[in-house]
């Protein structure tokens, strides 16, 4: 079990969310207590891995005790050209409503503080199945899964948006059969039955790789962001702009090419999944996605379609008022999902 006190960063709290704290972690800072860190790098192609941990601070309880006693873990995964900041304060608000839940908000797939070792990265490392395998490898490395040290095992809820939503469609099935878990995919970037978008994403990626036309690279990638985020909060838009300029072009290119070329998921049981879509999403077709998940076997109660664009949950004074209600609806969905999973884990 990881010694959570090893992090050199202090916890911080939000002035508007009492008793909820967030603590940042960088895997390399914990390498001394993780003998398999070098193997993690080799297997995933990642130089490092970053996450923020949000938790409810009970009186005199150490962080390690809170983690060992939690009912479950909620793992947030952002989209292409994003970071953990994409979610703003959603993880902290979820913890506020579920004090016995711990949220882990990640930088994934070469973005933020989880860069790849090489640029461009190998496709098997940066595609959606590879990204999901890296997250599961990380959970295992830090001792959160499988939780064999606990009599009452925790539940796991994977929350993904865009690329992150596509990633969880490739969640390992056989090795999780004895676990209580759920997946909540928001505007998932998975285009197995959408030929037009498969082509567009690949073209944007290959255009970004061309070494001697940087203005075209900038135009293509920024055009995608602008189309996706016209209704998102200014904070989210600024974050994506900064991440774009800070991320190597090889990572930007190969990850978006991999999204466009993602294979059909091998999973057979989709009962643990929930889906949320925006009706004005230009990056992820609502109609095509609904057709796809219907073919997989999704049922109506697993699906939410709301008014909004690709970032239908992101809101500030410049966003449509519908985004404000969408954000609350997503929070309500996650809160209900946590309660259902917690009840299921207690009956195991």
Can you give a write-up of this model?
The protein has 348 residues and is α/β, with parallel strands linked by helices. The chain has a single domain (4-346), classed as Rossmann fold. The protein has helices spanning 37-44, 63-69, 90-97, 123-126, 128-141, 163-167, 195-209, 214-229, 234-246, 249-260, 286-296, 321-346, and strands spanning 12-14, 17-26, 50-56, 72-77, 101-107, 155-161, 180-186, 273-278, 303-306. The chain has a nine-stranded mixed β-sheet, with helices on both faces. Strand 4, helix 3 (90-97) and strand 5 (101-107) form a beta-alpha-beta unit. The two termini are 23 Å apart.
Tell me, rounded to a whole number, the average pLDDT.
92
CA radius of gyration is 19 Å
Strand order of the largest sheet: 1-2-3-5-4-6-7-8-9
CATH class: Alpha Beta
Number of helices: 12
Question: Which helices and strands occur, and which strands form pairs?
Answer:
Elements: E1 12-14, E2 17-26, H1 37-44, E3 50-56, H2 63-69, E4 72-77, H3 90-97, E5 101-107, H4 123-126, H5 128-141, E6 155-161, H6 163-167, E7 180-186, H7 195-209, H8 214-229, H9 234-246, H10 249-260, E8 273-278, H11 286-296, E9 303-306, H12 321-346
């Amino acid at each position: 079990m990881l010694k959570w006190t090893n992090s050199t960063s202090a916890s911080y709290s939000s002035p508007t969310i009492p008793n909820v704290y967030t603590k940042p972690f960088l895997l390399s800072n914990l390498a001394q207590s993780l003998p398999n860190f070098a193997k993690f790098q080799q297997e995933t192609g990642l130089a490092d891995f970053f996450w923020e941990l949000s938790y409810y601070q009970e009186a005199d309880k150490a962080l390690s005790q809170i983690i060992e006693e939690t009912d479950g873990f909620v793992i947030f995964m952002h989209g292409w050209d994003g970071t953990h900041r994409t979610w703003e304060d959603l993880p902290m608000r979820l913890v506020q409503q579920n004090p016995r839940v711990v949220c882990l908000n990640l930088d994934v797939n070469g973005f933020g503080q989880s860069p790849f070792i090489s640029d461009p990265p190998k496709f098997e490392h940066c595609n959606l199945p590879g990204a999901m395998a890296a997250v599961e490898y990380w959970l295992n490395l830090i001792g959160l899964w499988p939780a064999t040290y606990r009599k009452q095992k925790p539940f796991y809820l994977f929350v993904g948006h865009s690329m992150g939503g596509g990633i969880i469609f490739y969640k390992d099935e056989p090795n999780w059969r004895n676990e209580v878990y759920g997946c909540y995919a928001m505007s998932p970037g998975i285009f197995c039955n959408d030929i037009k978008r498969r082509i567009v994403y690949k073209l944007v990626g290959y255009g970004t790789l061309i070494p001697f036309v940087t203005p075209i690279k900038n135009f293509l990638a920024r055009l995608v962001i602008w189309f996706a985020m016209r209704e998102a909060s200014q904070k989210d838009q600024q974050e994506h702009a900064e991440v774009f300029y800070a991320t190597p072009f090889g990572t930007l290119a190969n990850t978006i090419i991999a999204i466009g070329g993602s294979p059909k998921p091998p999973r057979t049981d989709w009962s643990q999944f929930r889906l949320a879509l925006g009706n004005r999403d230009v990056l992820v077709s609502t109609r095509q996605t609904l057709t796809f998940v219907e073919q997989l076997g999704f049922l109506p109660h697993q699906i939410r379609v709301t008014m909004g664009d690709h970032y239908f949950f992101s809101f500030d004074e410049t966003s449509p008022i519908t985004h404000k209600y969408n954000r609350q609806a997503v929070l309500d969905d996650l809160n209900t999902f946590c309660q259902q999973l917690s009840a299921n884990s207690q009956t195991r």
